Every structure is written in structure tokens, then in C-alpha cells.
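Run log // design_07
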């Protein structure tokens, strides 16, 4: 078997070193916490030579952002796609909850990382890791109101309610490993949808839907 050309081998080694550093950092941030972790801790965990870190990252904050950004961007896009296609209030709410909760159940370590560093995530990344999903949710809610899926409500408060329910139920799913994502999504959806119904929907475009989340009681307009 022929060896890789020198340039390809160098690039392969760079990618491998970067991946090794990211995994080492993830372990350190989960076990020690962002505030206590040092670059030296990350390099020691990686097993790479001292000084290697700075060939790839300027500081631990940039690395922490890298670890979070890719996964959160992926789940934010998936939830946006589902909300954009939703034809009813149930679909809008249930689809996003179910997608997020499945991700948490399937990859609990990632959410554990966020919980372990919750204060840091909220403080350092308000405009990115926290801010971007919230901005997208608000935009999706405005669009849904225009389409008649939601009554005309305060978007900031509604987004905060959705985000809070998702985050805290996600915490339960993460901390209690025997929880079912679908059951949790049905619970969250029913609680939220029935609350929204008290505000009322009106007009020919109003759609609540039926049957997206088994066991839900849904009022048709």
C-alpha cells in the first residue's frame, strides 16, 4: 500500500491533532468545568506535545465555542426546518421538542457539558450559542403568527417560555437516563399548547391540528 503524499499526510496529522485536542478539551470542560480548566490541562489530557494547542486555537474560550457551536447550529437548523414546515400549532411545538429531546437522549454527554458549564455558556456566548437559537426561535414564532398557527402574543415572553420548558425538561432527561424523549415531548407539547389555547385563535387561517402528539386534548377553531 502506498503511503500518503507528504502534503496529504501533513494535513491528515493536523486534522487528527485538532480532533484530539477538541476531545481532550471536552473531557476537561465536563470533568473540571470551564473556569477551572487551563490550556495545560487540555494538552496534558490530549497527550500531545506542549505548545501544540496554540497551533490550532488562540485560547480555551475559542475551543469551547468550537465544541458547542457545531452541535447547536445543527440542532437549531433542524428545529427551524420543522417549524417552517409545520401546518398546525401542534406540529410546530411537538416537532421541535421531540427533535431536541431525542438529541439529548441520544447524546447526553453534550447536554451534560452545557449543564456543567451553564453559567459560562449563558455569560460568554449570549450572542452565539444561546443567542442564535433564541433569535431563530423568535423569527419562527413571528412567521407562525403570520401564518395563523399562533395567536398574536408577546414573542419575547413566548420564546422564553418555550426555551425554558425545553431546557429544564432536557435537564431531567439528561440527569435521569431512563426517560423517554417522545413521552417528554408529548408532555411539554400538551402543557404549552393548552396554555396557548387560552389566548384564543381567530380568523380563517387559525389551525390547531389534531393527533400529532398522542394523548393531547386539542380544541379546534
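design_07 sequence
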Amino acid at each position: 500500500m502506498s503511503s500518503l503524499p507528504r502534503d496529504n499526510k501533513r494535513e491528515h496529522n493536523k486534522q487528527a491533532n485538532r480532533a484530539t485536542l477538541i476531545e481532550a478539551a471536552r473531557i476537561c470542560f465536563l470533568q473540571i468545568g470551564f473556569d477551572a480548566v487551563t490550556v495545560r490541562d487540555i494538552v496534558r489530557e490530549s497527550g500531545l506535545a506542549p505548545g501544540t494547542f496554540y497551533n490550532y486555537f488562540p485560547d480555551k474560550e475559542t475551543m469551547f465555542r468550537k465544541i458547542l457551536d457545531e452541535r447547536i447550529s445543527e440542532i437549531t437548523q433542524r428545529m427551524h426546518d420543522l417549524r417552517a414546515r409545520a401546518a398546525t400549532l401542534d406540529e410546530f411545538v411537538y416537532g421541535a421538542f421531540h427533535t431536541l429531546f431525542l438529541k439529548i437522549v441520544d447524546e447526553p454527554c453534550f447536554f451534560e457539558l452545557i449543564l456543567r458549564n451553564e453559567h459560562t455558556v449563558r455569560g460568554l456566548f449570549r450572542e452565539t450559542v444561546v443567542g442564535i437559537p433564541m433569535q431563530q426561535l423568535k423569527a419562527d414564532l413571528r412567521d407562525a403568527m403570520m401564518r395563523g398557527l399562533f395567536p398574536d402574543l408577546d414573542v419575547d415572553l413566548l420564546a422564553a417560555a418555550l426555551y425554558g420548558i425545553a431546557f429544564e425538561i432536557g435537564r431531567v432527561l439528561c440527569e435521569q437516563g431512563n426517560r423517554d424523549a417522545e413521552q417528554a415531548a408529548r408532555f411539554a407539547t400538551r402543557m404549552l399548547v393548552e396554555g396557548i389555547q387560552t389566548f384564543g385563535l381567530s380568523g380563517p387561517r387559525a389551525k390547531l391540528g389534531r393527533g400529532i402528539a398522542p394523548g393531547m386534548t386539542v380544541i379546534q377553531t
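The two ends are 69 Å apart (CA to CA).
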